[in-house]
Design a protein that fits this description.
Helix 1 runs antiparallel to helix 9. The chain has twelve helices and 13 strands. Bound molecules: pyridoxal-5'-phosphate and (2S)-2-amino-4-(2-amino-3-hydroxyphenyl)-4-oxobutanoic acid. Its cofactor is pyridoxal 5'-phosphate.
Length: 405
């Protein structure tokens, strides 16, 4: 196998062996579902057979199951610039958006605007709409273009809620700058890090973010439906109230008091019994990041995406770049636009190059530096070019939309 010159000094090269990548597959969809780290099945087997199977209910204490949301949270916290004790892993991202948005709105009772943008992932906007109806206090969800967020920040805004890396284009918001502007107007800032955590360096405390949420199953490789995470800035932790007051957020869950008293710290944002099997999978998957510097990930991610863009643009003039050209303005993904993009992506998948498609015309390719090489990226671009040149995508079986795209 010939080594691409840029793979020769790759400090992350050895990491690829930690992942189970099917033979013949180039996986460019780690931004939707991360790859299985090879050691995770054994760890899960141990949790199932030894901890659950043998130790049974004693495992809540003996194997610290009860602290797993906090232990996983701290491991994720290290990757996103959060102080220890500021992150918990729990629930889904959508549910966590609900909790932090409701908590943030109750900290700004006199303000009525939730400011977001049209690059946000729809679930965040749906949650805001549901909350608006539930609260029935006249909140307005203002959705502007990403470049207009700054101008829309004013004294009416209670909460600015944004996804840092746009799921379609990969465009990155300036977290520190926008958070500062929001604070200047007295608003709170919520950041969705679904496409940031494990993908780019994030510094939540440096940026002064108030709240953050994100997914465990994308770049963190926690497995399908892995628990999400939730961050509350230390200075807000004693002030916030969860709208879903559950016993796991109680000061003394096993006192079984009839009245709710929130526990100290971010754990008050947890609700019910933690999902031990999926948290264990996420906890184990995070081992891969233990000795990794997010700056090395970023450097390689930029290099992989630059090579991919160059190769695709050289060989596929019919495609239009759908991501910012400046790598500093992109996350760890690249999109190209093409009217028949859905069929092209299906043809690619049939030939082992797994990316995905987002309506109306976006072919999306995620770059996960832990398990991709420059050679993979060059090969993927060549296969894409060949599929386009021969119109191998132009077949009825590639045009029928699947239920999940
Ligand atoms: C930015 C963003 N937020 C939220 C979600 C939804 O998360 P979940 O389905 O885990 O609630 C996704 C992806 O599904 C996403 O990309
Ligand atoms: N969560 C997903 C799922 O359950 C099925 C298919 C895709 C997903 C995704 O994560 C989609 C992803 N958030 C996106 O950026 O499009």
């Amino acid at each position: 196998m010939t080594l691409h010159p840029l793979d020769q000094n790759d400090v992350l090269a050895a990491k690829k062996a930690a992942f189970q990548i099917p033979e013949g597959v180039i996986y460019l969809d780690g931004n939707s579902l991360g790859v299985l780290p090879k050691h995770v099945p054994d760890r899960l087997q141990e949790v199932v057979t030894r901890e659950w199977g043998t130790s049974l209910i004693k495992s809540w204490n003996d194997h610290s199951w009860i602290d797993l949301p906090q232990r996983v949270g701290d491991r994720i916290g290290r990757l996103i610039g959060a102080d220890k004790g500021s992150v918990v892993a729990c629930d889904s991202t959508s549910v966590n958006v609900f909790k932090v948005l409701a908590a943030a709105l109750s900290l700004r009772p006199d303000r009525k605007v939730i400011l977001s943008d049209n690059g946000n992932f729809p679930t965040d906007l749906y949650v805001a709409q549901g909350l608006q109806a539930l609260l029935d206090k006249g909140h307005e969800l203002k959705i502007v273009a990403p470049e207009d967020v700054e101008a829309a920040l004013n004294e009416d805004v209670a909460v600015m809620m944004l996804t840092q890396v746009d799921y379609r284009s990969g465009r990155v918001h300036d977290m520190a700058g926008l958070t500062q502007l929001a604070h200047d107007k007295g608003a709170l800032a919520i950041w969705d890090l679904a496409h940031s955590a494990g993908a780019i360096p994030v510094n939540l405390s440096g940026a002064g973010a108030d709240f953050a949420v994100g997914c465990g199953y994308k770049y963190l490789n926690g497995g399908p439906g892995a628990p999400a995470f939730l961050y509350v800035a230390p200075h807000l932790q004693e002030e916030v109230a969860s709208p879903l007051a559950g016993w796991m957020g109680h000061e003394a869950p096993f006192a079984f008091d009839l009245d709710y008293r929130p526990v100290t710290g971010v754990s008050r944002m947890t609700v019910g019994t933690p999902a031990i099997l999926s948290l264990s999978s996420l906890h184990a998957a995070l081992d891969v990041f233990e000795d990794v510097d997010m700056n090395d990930i970023r450097q390689k991610s930029v290099s992989l995406s630059e090579v991919f863009i160059q190769e695709v643009e050289r060989q596929c003039p019919q495609l239009e770049l759908g991501s910012p050209r400046d790598p500093q303005a992109r996350g760890s993904q690249v999109s190209f636009r093409f009217d028949d993009g859905y069929a092209v992506v299906q043809a690619l998948i049939a030939e082992g190059v797994i990316g995905d498609f987002r309506a109306p015309d976006i072919m999306r390719f995620g770059f996960t530096p832990l398990y991709l090489s420059h050679k993979d990226v060059v090969d993927a671009a060549a296969i894409l070019a060949d599929i386009l040149a021969t119109r191998r995508w132009d077949k009825p079986e590639f045009k029928t939309r699947a239920k999940v795209t």
